[in-house]
Amino acid sequence: MATTPNPDRRNERARRAILDAALELCSTQTYAGLTMEGIAKSAGVGKQTIYRWWPSKAAILLEAITERADQSLDFPDTGDLLADLRGQMYELVRLFTDPMFGAYGRGLIVAAQTDPAISAALLDTLIRPRVQLCIERLAKAQQAGEIRADVDLAVVVELLYAPLYYRMLLHTAPVSSEQVDSVISLVMSGIRP
Amino acid sequence: MATTPNPDRRNERARRAILDAALELCSTQTYAGLTMEGIAKSAGVGKQTIYRWWPSKAAILLEAITERADQSLDFPDTGDLLADLRGQMYELVRLFTDPMFGAYGRGLIVAAQTDPAISAALLDTLIRPRVQLCIERLAKAQQAGEIRADVDLAVVVELLYAPLYYRMLLHTAPVSSEQVDSVISLVMSGIRP
DNA sequence: CTGTCAAGACACAACGTCTCGTCTTGTGTA
DNA sequence: TACACAAGACGAGACGTTGTGTCTTGACAG
Hints:
Chains A, B: InterPro entries: Homeodomain-like_sf, HTH-type_TetR-like_transc_reg, HTH_TetR, Tet_transcr_reg_TetR-rel_C_sf, TetR_C. The structure is a homodimer. By secondary structure, chain A is mostly helical. The first copy, chain A, has 2 domains: about 1-55, Homeodomain-like (Arc Repressor Mutant, subunit A, Orthogonal Bundle), CATH 1.10.10.60; about 55-190, Tetracycline Repressor, domain 2, CATH 1.10.357.10. Chain A has helices at about 10-30, 35-45, 45-55, 55-70, 80-95, 100-115, 115-145, 155-170, 175-190. Chain A is elongated, with a radius of gyration of 20 Å. At the A-B interface, helix 6, helix 7, helix 8 and helix 9 of A face helix 6, helix 7, helix 8 and helix 9 of B.
């Protein structure tokens, strides 16, 4: 069909089966080993049903992940900036070192290198909202005088999180909570009044 | 042949043609569009000749890049730490924003996600030697009292360079010399005595 | 009764292996 | 030193395999 499909008549059972099969297969093997045919077979679904609703396997994964990641989007504010940052970043370390999430997190970033649509969706739904929340938390601290007024908070966020992505993607060393502590310690001493 | 090929009888002309064709094709199209058959055809070479000497297209690119990157491996030491860092990092920005290098740099990192051999080679030949040189330059500054004695220099290097990789791979914002300036400025104020 | 569904056939592209016949190269012999 | 020759690297491309994305079919649900 060249015409756009009708979402009202969509079979929810098939959608669920496809998303679940994609995550299931991705945790079993590598992202590279994930195929449309594999997903279709494992979900008990025709290939056309997949191609009707998703343009690529990366799009499937992105939807599956977004669905699960929507929860726990809030950045804590206990009044203790260090503790809040540490808690949030430890959580990210947990995700990055989780074999399942690690596999498809890397897979999505890989897909984003060649597929601009995936790149944009990844940024819009996962990365940027969380960066924004971190900036807002830092802004409160800045207003409270815990951070120098001239510091660009967007740069601080990059400084905090980039080393985690760096290690995850380049495999120079394992992502760890020790790394988080070192990074926070150095960055904090650079932005304190 | 199951036996290993004899390097002494290797045809240098074919090797050159393959490496050149790989770089050429990689700059023309995307890394994903790079195929063994394409390289073979473009180099005027049989596929077997490629498979005899390289296990994957990533291995070809790695060798081609290493060959060119060997030069200019030294980290400058003009006595001015800030200027030295800035110069070296501007150079990296230039590479990352170069369309050709950008394409196969990203390609190599992508390949490293699924191929441990590529990952190891990438680290050993390109990443770690340069990280080491940066650490050594920082160590001199530390001995000269420009950096606090308790600062872990390996973390500093990650803090400096990770944001560039972060932007290159996640496409949150363009890699730029302005970013370098912000990062250096924040990091320096965190490590000064 | 229109459109989605599961199933699978289809043409295409790239993979990695293989088999040719040709040409090159290192080595042993004179 | 000169040369002959076997080993093997070469270009070309056929081959079976796998995954791609599209199309067709008949069943069935909104």
